[in-house]
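Reagents: none. Just compute today. Disulfide bond formation protein DsbB.
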Amino acid sequence: MPLSPTRLYPALLILVGVSALATAYTAQFGFGLEPCILCLYQRVPFALSIVLGLVGLWRPAWLVGVFTLATIIFAANAGVAVYHVGVEQHWWASAVGCGGKLVTQVSAQDLMASLSTKPAKSCDTVDWTMFGISIAGWNIVFSGALAAASLYVLRTRKWETPS
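Predicted 3D structure written out:
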């Protein structure tokens, strides 16, 4: 028995979020690809898509709002990914803490404490590519397509609300 669009589309939002996060965590913990801060920021929209999907399943009357937010969230994530690719390609410097800062005054205790902590991964380091495109580059494509798909669903669906 096929799902109605009222149930199917929120379920797809959940599936997208779970799949994207599972892929990111598999790359991190299974294959040792360390994420930078921009990589971590790009995971947030996928977690939010899970929440939005659950809201859509729980409150079908809110589906217009759910897919409006999904469109905005995925488009914003594509924007962050464009910014990340720019940092990777050295088109511009990162405005976030990617790789630490040069400290002018440091105490001996601070120096000893810093030796035991791992420095933040630099956002301009590309650890993995497929067809010459980094993970952030693929996220532009993926998030852009998800934004377009969410907008398409939002504009073409006539939501049947259960009575």
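The longest helix spans residues 5-30.
Action item: order primers for follow-up constructs.
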